[in-house]
Design brief:
single chain; 378 residues; alpha/beta; eight-stranded parallel barrel; two-stranded antiparallel sheet; 10 strands; globular
Length: 378
């Protein structure tokens, strides 16, 4: 990642030419001066021109996390991709501004988000300092630990050493005294669950987090984690899991039932199935800038004729509802019982604005739901 004083602002002109974002629609973060004018000034010397939309809370809805006092916006922004050191900072900054202007107050990170690992937190920390420090009490910031972050036996999983050290590193990168939610990112098959949960408890008691959550835990481990944390009176409020129209296995394995019984909120990641539930693949071709083309998490061979047939059928229902496929996919998630928030990703501000329009219609008829079930095989 470029340092604040590196003076390399060459990507600013590239940002101003992002397709789909005309100059009149760009967020107020865009500087109306030539890059040369700021090339030799640090970001500390550049006053933010960003002024949040005063009506940002009028359209967004907020949902309670289980039985806690914490509410999250129906849409939250995840920084898994497109906020790392390899990405254009001004584009990342514009996406954060756009989200906040739409009432999205929750920004979700993890210690290993980038690439490079840790750089998404550094990017968010820079944006917070430059533009949003006076709005800190309006924001819900979360981070996680559990996946590989540094070499050696203590750089991943769920030991007390890993989780507490990871939280400390995350706070330093973010430039914060505390995060609102700190998660254990995945269950550890070797570390006792009591140890991992005790580490989360200590993080709260030391003032480094207000609430805790878990991610990717199966039903019974979720129930056991809840029992342990309840015994310590630790505010366990949220479970983060993968869930979308094409991946509904949590409906069958009982996780939603456990969360309801334990009074824990649910936030869903990958609600668009890594872009499959959008218009990007409708024509059958793989766009060169897509995740499938990069073959990192989404493999080209996974986009089969059968899958394309499902996506096309889903898109037909979305069109009949007056929505894009992406809007309908998010609206469907928000219509499900027990869902607190859908965690969206984006590569440019226009995508966030498009998805936010799903909130205009989150109701489904019985016929629509039946048709969706038939297409997705649920």
């Amino acid at each position: 990642m470029l340092s604040e004083d590196s003076g390399n602002f060459g990507d600013l002109e590239k940002f101003l030419k992002i397709p789909g974002d005309s100059a009149e629609n760009l967020p107020t973060c865009c500087f109306r001066i030539r890059p040369v004018d700021i090339r030799h000034r640090s970001s500390k010397e550049i006053r933010s021109m960003y002024k949040p939309n005063p009506g940002r809370y009028e359209r967004m809805t907020y949902r309670r996390c289980g039985a806690s006092g914490l509410k999250l916006p129906a849409l939250s922004l995840g920084l898994w991709h497109n906020f790392g050191s390899y990405d254009v900072y001004e584009n990342a900054r514009a996406m954060i501004h756009t989200a906040f202007d739409l009432g999205i107050t929750h920004f979700d990170l993890a210690n290993n988000y980038g690439p490079e690992p840790g750089s998404a937190e550094e990017t968010m920390g820079r944006i917070l300092k430059q533009d949003l420090s006076v709005h800190r009490d309006e924001l819900i910031l979360s981070s996680k630990a559990g996946y590989l972050m540094w070499p050696g036996p203590y750089g991943e999983w769920g030991s007390r050493k890993n989780l507490i050290a990871s939280c400390d590193h995350s706070l330093k990168r973010l430039g914060l005294d505390y995060v609102d939610i700190f998660y254990h990112h995945r269950p550890d098959p070797e570390t006792p669950l009591e140890e991992s949960m005790a580490a989360l408890d200590q993080i709260v008691r030391s003032g480094k987090a207000l609430y805790v959550g878990i991610s990717n835990y199966p039903p019974e481990k979720t129930r056991e984690a809840s029992r342990i944390l309840r015994s310590m009176k630790t505010p366990f409020v949220i479970h983060q899991m993968r869930y979308n129209l094409l991946d509904r296995h949590y409906e069958e394995n009982g996780l939603f039932k456990v969360l309801e019984e334990e009074k824990i909120g649910a936030i869903v990641f990958s609600p668009l199935a890594q872009g499959l539930l959008s218009d990007r693949y409708l024509g059958g071709a793989i766009p060169p800038d897509s995740r499938a083309a990069r073959a990192h998490f989404l493999k080209p061979e996974s986009i089969t004729p059968e899958l394309l047939g499902k996506i096309t059928a889903l898109n037909n229902i979305a069109a009949a509802r007056g929505q894009t496929l992406a809007q309908m996919a998010i609206a469907w998630i928000l219509s499900r019982n027990g869902i607190t928030s859908a965690l969206i990703g984006a590569s440019r501000p226009a995508q966030i604005r498009e998805i936010a329009n799903c909130l205009l219609n989150t109701d489904f008829t019985e016929e629509e739901l039946a048709a969706l079930d038939q297409i997705t095989g649920s």
